[in-house]
Amino acid sequence: MAEHQEFVIGVDGGGTKTAAWLASLVDDTILGRGQAGPGNPRAAGFEVAQANIAAAVAAAFDDAKLSRQAVAAACFGLAGAGREVEQQLIADWALGRRIAKKVRVCGDAELILAAASPENCGVALIAGTGSLAWGRNQAGETTRCGGWGYLLGDEGSGYAIALAGLRAAMRAADGRGPTTGLLPAFLRELGAATAPELIGKVYSPEMTRERLAGLASVVFEYRSTDEVAQRIVADAAGELAAMVKTVATELKLPPQGYMLAISGGVLLNQLNYLEQFLFTLWAHTHSGESQPARCVKVEEPVRGAVALARLLAR
């Protein structure tokens, strides 16, 4: 397999899908795009994540109508790979597969900031199936907040919102919580006739974490007409605002403002939720504290992986 120094690969691996782009090293040309299943090594398992990364990379070469070959550098930005142990395992695997001569593995939030900021400074916020805030200042210092996974955290995410909605519906069914339109809405959505039938639906093996997170759409649908749904969404927006503010404070980002890069299906697809989060963030930022000067929505985080791969190659 011949080595081609003029190519780089960027990979964005999340809880639902993995995207890989094959790009030119010398300019901004994207030569091929590939996609496969989940690339989160902690949620999907390392073998599954590695197989999907390899499949996405292979698809990118096929899309470019090029033979598969080692490239100058590759950057893998993966959910569930924010710590050194995951990064080393993936890097060793990629080098062993000779995907690239140089390999960098980082958390998926770093891609968001790299895609939005040429200086790669500011705060990145992801709110999709899970949630995480990550930041970097001009001195190169980094920190993160959240990203503890669906059992320990993921506040403000689709999963957390859906779970809060389902729990509120169950309390309403018991009579120990306020009446809410979420109960009949979840019954309809899941094809259940009564509240007890929801047990079988929710605990079914087919109810993956990603599918459950998708039920957040039910809560968003009722947020303007149902007080319970409204409170759930408001609390979730507050959690995201607290994450971003914590990162900005720890990094001592400048009071005149910083770049805020936004990604994740929940924030990108629920514009009212994005607006509520931003309003909450600004409302809780006091005079003299750092606040966003610019907010950029990042639709394709894999673009940031390509940018980081080019930096690594050079």
Structural commentary:
- Helix content is 47%, strand content 23%.
- The chain has 14 helices and 10 strands.
- The chain has helices spanning 41-44, 46-64, 84-96, 108-116, 149-152, 158-174, 182-190, 197-202, 209-214, 216-222, 227-250, 265-269, 271-283, 302-313; strands spanning 3-13, 18-24, 30-36, 70-78, 100-107, 122-127, 131-136, 142-146, 258-263, 292-297.
- The strands form 2 sheets. Strands 3-2-1-4-5 form a 5-stranded mixed β-sheet. Strands 8-7-6-9-10 form a 5-stranded mixed β-sheet, with helices on both faces.
- Helix 4 crosses helix 14, helix 6 crosses helix 10 and helix 6 packs antiparallel against helix 11.
- The protein is globular, with a radius of gyration of 21 Å.
Can you give me a brief rundown of this structure?
Helix content is 47%, strand content 23%. It has 314 residues and is of the alpha/beta class. Strands 3-2-1-4-5 form a five-stranded mixed β-sheet.
